Amino acid sequence: MHFDPAVLVDYWPLLLQGAWLTLQVAAMALVIGYVAGIAVALIALMPGWLPRLVTGCYVEILRNIPFIIILFVVYYGLPFWGIRLPATLVGTVALALFASAYYAEIVRAAILALPRGQFESARAIGMSPMSAMWHVVAPQILRTLVPPSTNMTLTMMKESSVLSSITVPELTYQSLVVQGNTFAPFEVFAAVASIYWLIAALIAEVSRRLERRVGAVQAEATSRNRIADRYLSLVARRS
Amino acid sequence: MGFKLDFLLSILPRLIGAAAVNIRLAAIIMLLALALGTALTIVRAQKIALVNAFIAVIISFVRGTPLLIQIFIAYYVLPAIGLDLSPEVAGISAIAFNSMVFVSESMRGGLATIDTGQIEASTALGLPPHAIWLKVVLPQLFRRIVPVLINEATIVVKGTALLSVITVVDVLRTAQQIASSSYRPFETMVGSALVFLVINLVISLSGRLAESRFAAARV
What we know:
The complex is a heterodimer.
Chain A: H1 12-44, H2 49-64, H3 67-80, H4 87-113, H5 116-124, H6 129-159, H7 171-182, H8 185-214, H9 226-232
Helix pairs in contact in A: 1-2, 1-4, 1-7, 2-4, 3-4, 4-6, 5-6, 6-8, 7-8
Chain B: H1 5-45, H2 49-64, H3 67-80, H4 87-111, H5 116-124, H6 129-144, H7 146-160, H8 171-182, H9 185-218
């Protein structure tokens, strides 16, 4: 067995097309999923038990079912109700649906972590609920929102590989096509894994810039003492 | 063509039967991930620069690439380098490797919450390193990461559904077989969604019970 990247020479355009579609699908699902997630979070915070129950079911159902099953339910469910869409669109909608449950929990937790007085004082000085959310709550939760949202977006981008099973020609789908043509699994999957790795690094970099902008606080593990660190820390002490 | 609830009910026994495969695989994967994750954490704590740099690359790879790709690597690439694994074993290896990294990463977080005085005391008493790990650090660490492990268990259960793409006959593949012979894919998929929902809710709920037990034991 030898590693020969030359077998891929004719297939780079195909893989790059796939990577581009993966990026587009993930970006679309991020936007749609986040908007839906904010809506679900705001409903969850409405007074009374009913909104919390309904949104709780929404979140728990979507988080406890494998994404590949959610994808197939949407894929077969839409035509069932007479809606026929191209596979790429179906996949994007399913991905956004899946991500919205997690984004909703992130947004809800961030709002709950803010002292309640913030929203109430804004209301007391006569702001409408919407404008209190937008002008008082939103700016303050941005910094707590960025790190978990980045994690979720990375997870969601990786889950988009599952769209290959409904023939969306994204990166994983193209890798299987190339694998079928070249019979060079080592080269193909090394290349594809590297591309995903790059996309993940790209998302992480965008998030780092965003964090610097909104001043997100990242918990930094500090070493405490030399003896305890022998067991309780996994990073070498800089001295 | 309406939603046929009686059809859904009629196929549930077959789907539940297939769920035994997912549960068995998930249990094996969790045990492996826990053992390997613990070992990896202890190795990382030795802080050997070259080894940790290598492990950091592995961790970044596992976290930066889709699980599905990791499963394909185990299924297509390992045989090419002479390791001919059955689909089940390839799938178990891929998910366990993935989960090992997440277990070790959550252990890293857990370690930071253990009281430093205990390590100083154990060292002062002259306990050998293996005793400090086994009797002092690990028992507390495991308790602390129970919530994370429960969450990881549900992620692993969800991950086993991906093994249907490498021909493991699990809930999803059984559902696909039923769907292609009955032409009722929607009901079938809703059925398998229900099966996974129940498995994971049971895991989460029993996890919450176990947590409150541990919380009580700590006092």
